[in-house]
From TrEMBL:
Gene3D superfamilies referenced in this protein's UniProt entry, alphabetically: Laminin (2.10.25.10), Phosphorylase Kinase, domain 1 (3.30.200.20), Transferase(Phosphotransferase) domain 1 (1.10.510.10)
Transmembrane segments: 256-279
Name of the protein in question: Protein kinase domain-containing protein
Compartment annotation: Membrane
Signal peptide residues on this chain, from the entry's feature table: 1-19
Domain of life according to the entry: Eukaryota
Pfam families: EGF_CA, GUB_WAK_bind, PK_Tyr_Ser-Thr
An MF annotation (GO) of this entry: protein serine/threonine kinase activity
UniProt keywords, alphabetically: ATP-binding, Disulfide bond, EGF-like domain, Glycoprotein, Kinase, Membrane, Nucleotide-binding, Serine/threonine-protein kinase, Signal, Transferase, Transmembrane, Transmembrane helix
PROSITE patterns linked to this entry: EGF_CA (PS01187), PROTEIN_KINASE_ATP (PS00107), PROTEIN_KINASE_DOM (PS50011), PROTEIN_KINASE_ST (PS00108)
Source organism per UniProt: Oryza sativa subsp. indica
Length: 673
């Protein structure tokens, strides 16, 4: 044996003698034994010098150094006795045939030891503790890694580089021939050279590997050499026999065997192809079955009967298959998302006939959501109006129902007023009045001109779409309610959007057409001020835009919150007329608000007044006609026409204070139930 791998002989002898005599070993004797062995400074690896008659430690000896615990081998430098290990930090413990590392109560079961890789694996879910904290062990195992499924200790023989370690041959650990020294961040460890295997820490521990004996290593003639091998192809006329691992000549081949092998191969090929076709057919059958179940669950049969039997259906919506809509939206890819509403996500799709459509996918799979979906299909199938989004059809074969609308390209009125689009396109005063009139016309149609009166219940700027010509389209009828002609109100669960929600409806749960009028009044204020329906004041409180608008109207400071572009393009009488219309729509009591038909008429008169002013200004600028009428006379004419139409003009007493949202909800308690 080389001097590098000497065990502490005196300590070993003392320990063995003490064990045989029943007396504990002498601490002084142990100290002498340790002192006789040169040790790396801070390395933790010890070896006895080969001098005198001191017996050299042989790691291959079975007694007194046991090299296994249960079925697990324990290679040097690890050991169960201090005298048999490379150092105390490689000391293990064998308890109940389980190999443990550490000192109770902080112990872990060793699963495997890899000498070539310098890695020790432990079960990190030890019942004895999750972190080794024993002082004598913690410093040595400070680099345990418990991030994976097993604890890993990437150990090193000594805290030195290979270059430094080789300078001291007495303590250099890589003593076996055909061994290598490998540097790592915590020191160095040893491994056998390529083509050799075994223990590099003992002399002659690295032995040649017979590569030719390894299965599937060489499909030809194999010759083994020390540290390597040579593989040559089988000679011509012979083939490799994997069972015998030798080359055999033609007499080993048999036509019958070849035919059998070929037949088996073709048979397996047909079997695999048949199995694939069967699985595909079975999957298609299961998909059709699941889609039929979804169709029935989503009340598809009911909807079909409704559309066939309802005489009020204005057009025949198509029931699309799920496959059609998946192709149209690239399997509902996230890049096709147009927006997310209160009742679902909207995707852009292209049908097989090249029509561009918007496909709305319901958000929640609940029965009330499915009822709202069927409700929206039933309502939209009865509506034909240029300012209401057109329904092309629906799909009921998916887990969540799908609606297919006409595609509206320019987003929503909310985006135009408050979003990024507001910076690239400026909505003129005339276009603002036109859009307001179109929305009022659509709501008036729903309330009075449709075959069955329909209350939208979620009127807001985000539900007003704009096409290429910025023509408005009212959308999202998921919360709408249709009522019989002899009814004027219906009791429902409150639905809507804060900032647009009718306070009377919120308090009484009685939905009327005046609830849509209130929400439309908020949209008029949005258009006039370019502010969002819920604003934050200087105290960080949320305030209702409608109430703040009424406060400024009461104080006579309406021009302070009017958008600068509106103030520049419109005259004062037109702004006052718009503000007056918004004020009567925002009255707390629904009976004091006008009907949408009256609102539509008043907007028509306001638009006519703006058109006439523009014409007069054009004539005056060209020097053709008389000067435009004064603002006061124009206002008086319009107000007289409106009064004859039965619409009242607000007074200062009708305005209300500006509340926070919390104060506003409290103020609604005065309303009668």
């Amino acid at each position: 044996m080389g001097p590098v791998l000497l065990c502490l002989a005196i300590a070993a002898a003392t320990a063995v003698c003490a064990a045989s005599s029943g007396a504990p070993p002498s601490p002084d004797a142990a100290a002498v034994a340790v002192g006789s062995c040169p040790t790396y400074s801070g390395s933790g690896y010890s070896s006895a010098s080969d001098g005198g008659n001191q017996e050299e430690y042989d790691p291959n000896k079975e007694n007194p150094c046991k090299r296994s615990c249960g079925s697990m081998p324990i290679p040097f430098p690890f050991a169960l006795l201090s005298a048999c290990s490379g150092s105390n930090r490689f000391l293990l413990n064998c308890t109940s045939n389980k190999t443990l590392i550490g000192i109770p109560p902080a112990q872990y079961q060793v699963i495997n030891i890899s000498l070539d890789d310098g890695v020790l694996f432990v079960n990190k879910h030890s019942n004895l503790g999750d972190i080794i904290t024993t002082p004598t062990v913690a410093n040595e195992l400070h680099d345990f890694d418990f991030s994976g499924s097993q604890g890993i200790w990437r150990w090193a023989v000594a805290n030195q580089t290979c270059h430094t370690a080789r300078t001291d041959q007495l303590s250099y650990a890589c003593v076996s021939n055909n061994s290598l020294c490998v540097d790592r961040s915590t020191g160095y460890h040893c491994k056998c050279s390529l083509g050799y295997g075994g223990n590099a820490y003992i002399e002659d521990g690295c032995e040649d590997i017979d590569e030719c004996s390894l299965p599937n290593f060489c499909n030809g003639n194999c010759q083994n050499f020390l540290g390597s091998y040579r593989c040559s192809h089988c000679p011509r006329g012979s083939i490799f026999d994997p069972a015998k691992r030798v080359c055999i000549y033609g007499h080993g081949l048999h036509p019958a065997g070849l035919l059998i092998g070929l037949s088996c191969g073709i048979g397996v090929l047909f079997l695999v192809v048949g199995l694939i076709l069967f699985v595909r057919r079975w999957r298609r059958h299961m998909q059709r079955k699941i889609r039929r179940e979804y169709f029935q669950k989503n009340k598809g049969l009911l909807l079909e009967q409704l559309m066939l039997s309802d005489e009020n259906v204005a057009h025949d919506p198509k029931i699309f298959s799920l496959e059609e809509l998946e192709k149209a939206t690239d399997n509902f890819h996230s890049t096709r998302i147009l927006g997310c509403g209160g009742h679902g996500t909207v995707y852009k799709g292209i049908l097989l006939d090249q029509r561009v459509v918007a496909i709305k996918k319901s958000r929640i799979v609940e029965q009330n959501e499915i009822d709202q979906f069927i409700n929206e299909v039933a309502i939209l199938s009865q509506i034909v109006h240029r300012n209401v989004v057109k329904l092309f059809g629906c799909c009921l074969e998916s887990k969540v129902p799908l609606l297919v609308y006409e595609f509206i390209s320019n987003g929503t009125l909310y985006d135009l007023l408050h979003g990024e689009q507001s910076t690239t396109f400026s909505l003129t005063w005339e276009d603002s009045i036109r859009i307001s009139l179109e929305v009022a016309s659509a709501l008036s149609y729903l309330h009075s001109a449709a075959s069955i009166p329909i209350f939208h219940r979620d009127v807001k700027s985000a539900n007003i779409l704009l096409n290429d010509n910025y023509t408005s389209k009212v959308s999202d009828f998921g919360a709408s309610r249709s009522i019989s002609i002899d009814e004027t109100r219906v009791v429902t669960i409150v639905q809507g959007t804060f900032g647009y929600l009718d306070p009377e409806y919120f308090h009484t749960c009685q939905l009327t057409e005046k609830s849509d009028v209130y929400s439309f009044g908020v949209i008029l204020v949005e258009i006039l001020t370019r502010k969002k329906p819920i604003i934050v004041n200087c105290f960080g409180e949320n305030q209702n835009l409608g109430h703040c608008f009424l406060q400024t109207l009461q104080h006579g400071t309406i021009m302070e919150i009017v958008d600068p572009q509106i103030a520049k393009e419109a005259n004062e009488s037109e702004i006052n007329e718009m503000a007056s219309l918004a004020e009567i729509c925002l009255r707390i009591r629904g009976e004091e608000r006008p009907k949408m038909k009256e609102v539509e008429l008043r907007l028509q008169l306001l638009r006519a007044m703006i058109t006439e002013r523009s014409r007069q200004e054009l004539l005056r600028n060209n020097g053709i006609g008389p000067s435009v009428q004064s603002n006061s006379s124009t206002t008086s004419v319009t107000r007289s026409v409106v009064l004859r139409a039965g619409i009242g003009i607000s007074t200062d007493q009708d305005a209300t204070r500006c509340y926070t949202m919390e104060q506003e909800l409290v103020s609604w308690t005065d309303l009668p139930r």
